[in-house]
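On clarity, I found the account of how folds are encoded harder to follow than it need be. Since the whole study asks how a given chain folds, the encoding of that fold should be made plain. For illustration, here is how one protein appears when written out as sequence plus structure tokens:

:::
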Amino acid sequence: METKSTLANLATEARNPRTEHIDELPTLDMLRLINEEDAKVAAAVAAVLPEVAKAIDAIAQRFISGGRLFYVGAGTSGRLGVLDASECPPTFSVPPTLFHAIIAGGDTALRRSSEQSEDSPEQGAADLANAGFAHSPDGTAIPDTLIGIAASGRTPYVLGALAHARNIGALTIALTCVQNSQVAATADISIAPITGPEILTGSTRMKAGTATKLVLNMISTGVMIRTGAVYGNLMVNMQASNVKLVDRAQRIIMAATGIDQPSAAALLEIACTIKTAIVMQKLSIDRPAAEAELKAHHGNLSALLNRKS
């Protein structure tokens, strides 16, 4: 474990000179200062887009081969991993096991802080192994990917998980907000948007947390785009499971095919899924034929329709 002096050298622990007197400012000026600091986050993320793209392409390739994506983190970093993983199944209609998030301290740490849980690399490795990382239920090895999330770049729990993943030959990605970090040295790909000193000293739920969420959103969305869950900018993998989503599904079919709302509603009723409905309309074929075409093209609507056009 690092000494206090080592931690004090981290950019995420440094004192921000611009906000040293934030408590003395009128509320509006305080908010302007926070907003100005937050505005720096987008530029920090823009600087690491090549690394994000490399990660997306590598993960997408593993998804095609049956792999999954795991997030591991502690505290805010862990919660952001859980948030991103939990939003992918309803957004893209993928199995909940495709995106898997592990937080130090378990699910109770989502609501109640469990800071002491992050200090054990052995526990990080054990929790990852117990989650079945890189192996299917029957023990067969599969090409999983691990993203270790640590704003400080030195969380022992995350380091332990990354070391375990790398030891068994899995793809490892580090997401941190400091340069030359320990997690980066442990991973195959390092993504490090440098957000600098926080508005409140050491409060990485702020700028570092925002950068982390932006990158995780990019990764999960980018992987789903690369693997055919999106057509144009339409979420064609979405399941119409309530009134709002049925309405959205109809509008997606309308946008993709040019038909009107009553026709889209009737088509969705027959097709059951957005993709099937679009293929039926675009190719003037029935549901079984549309489903067969989708299966032959691994569910990739763009690949199917571009080839048929």
About this structure: Confidence is low (pLDDT under 50) at residues 1-5. Residues 27-46 form the longest helix (20 residues).
